[in-house]
Each structure stands twice: as structure tokens, then as C-alpha cells.
Design brief:
Belongs to the UPF0126 family. The chain is mainly α. It has one domain. The chain has 8 helices and no strands. The model has no long low-confidence stretch (mean pLDDT about 80).
Length: about 220
């Protein structure tokens, strides 16, 4: 009887898994915010799914992959619905943990910023284009989430919790490492840097300057 030999996952399979993890993380993030806002079941599912696929839709549109991947492969929408449903079912328990929303949000940000950078590199964009696409891929879903929930997008004002800056740094890391490491490792490295920058900023060790007009309070 022959034993089945284990074969390592291919590059495409690895990137797909990372994308699905990002989808699940962002769906939980958006749906948990909807639960906190007292949305009904439909509203929770919509906000969770829009948050989950928003960044990927931006990435695919900017890199010429139309229609977006989540419309060509419904496993992404099913994953978003799964995450949204989990948040609706267990939202009261999850909402008790103050850091839960931020953890899921940071994970989605990291994975989508890195995958957006990979897509931009494969599309042939230069370093600034890679950084721009990676950043928008990471923050796109969160911006859409906050606007639908009637919140000012955190990316615009939370200088003590670097968000878009972290996504841009992760995308830049992917671009720098892409020619030296396999794409999967470059993507993981970029995502890890995003999480590191977010962690450092949340501890108050670094923040962006704010320009204040004369007469404004500090």
C-alpha cells in the first residue's frame, strides 16, 4: 500500500489563503462595528461584506483585474458572510473585549496592503504606484465601513494609531523585498511590518504631526 506524500502548497494557494484570512478579518471588523451600532441582521451582513471586499475591489480595479476577484470567485463572499454571521451571533461576547475590533482590523489591513502591493508589482507599476495601491487596498474597506456607519474614517485623524502609514510601509517593504525573496515571503514580511507599526503606534511610541491654525486649542 502506497503512502500519500505530503506536497507543500503552491504560491497561488498560499496567497489565496492569506487573502481569505484578510477577508474574514475585515468581515469580523465591519460586522462588529455594525453590532455596536445596533444594526439589524441585514445591516450587519452588508457592512461586514462591504468592509471585507472593499479593499480587494480597490486593488483589483487599480491593477486592471475586472470584474473584481470577489465576483469571479464566490468563496470570498461566502467567507465574508461567514465572518459577518459569526460577529452577529457572538457580537455581544466579542464586544466585551475592547481590543477585539482593533485586532481584526489590523490583521485585515496588513494582509490587504501586502496583497495589493503584490498585485501592483505584477501589473508592472513603479515603487510609488505599488505603495499607493497597497495603501488603498488596506484602508479602502475600513473607509467604506466608517462612512456607511456614519463615522469619520480613522485614517483621516487618528495620528496616534498609524493606519494608512502602516499600510504604506508594508507595501513599500513588499516592493523592496520582492526581487530578493519569493513573493509569498515578501508578502508575509510586508504584512508583518504593518502589524509591527500598528503595535508600536498603539503604544504611543510614534505619532504623526498635526498642523494647527492660530488660535486653535492643542
Amino acid at each position: 500500500m502506497h503512502e500519500l506524500a505530503w506536497t507543500p502548497p503552491t504560491l497561488q494557494e498560499g496567497l489565496r489563503v492569506l487573502d481569505l484570512i484578510g477577508i474574514l478579518a475585515f468581515a469580523l471588523s465591519g460586522a462588529l462595528l455594525a453590532v455596536r451600532k445596533r444594526f439589524d441582521l441585514f445591516g450587519v451582513l452588508v457592512l461586514g461584506c462591504v468592509t471585507a471586499v472593499g479593499g480587494g475591489a480597490v486593488r483589483d480595479t487599480l491593477t486592471g483585474q475586472t470584474p473584481p476577484l470577489f465576483l469571479r470567485d464566490e468563496i470570498y463572499l461566502w467567507t465574508a458572510l461567514l465572518g459577518s454571521g459569526l460577529a452577529f451571533g457572538f457580537g455581544e461576547r466579542l464586544a466585551r473585549f475592547e481590543r477585539t475590533l482593533s485586532v481584526f482590523d489590523s490583521l485585515g489591513l496588513a494582509l490587504f496592503a501586502a496583497s495589493g502591493a503584490i498585485g501592483a508589482i505584477n501589473f508592472g507599476l513603479g515603487p510609488l504606484g505599488v505603495i499607493f495601491v497597497g495603501m488603498l487596498s488596506g484602508v479602502g474597506g475600513g473607509i467604506i465601513r466608517d462612512l456607511i456607519a456614519n463615522e469619520v474614517p480613522e485614517v483621516m485623524y487618528r495620528r496616534d494609531q498609524l493606519y494608512a502609514t502602516a499600510a504604506a510601509a508594508g507595501a513599500a517593504t513588499v516592493w523592496l523585498l520582492f526581487s530578493h525573496l519569493p513573493p509569498f515571503q515578501a508578502q508575509l514580511s510586508g504584512a508583518a511590518l504593518v502589524l509591527l507599526v500598528r503595535w508600536i503606534s498603539r503604544r504611543g511610541w510614534v505619532r504623526l504631526p498635526v498642523r494647527r491654525l492660530p488660535g486653535e486649542r492643542a
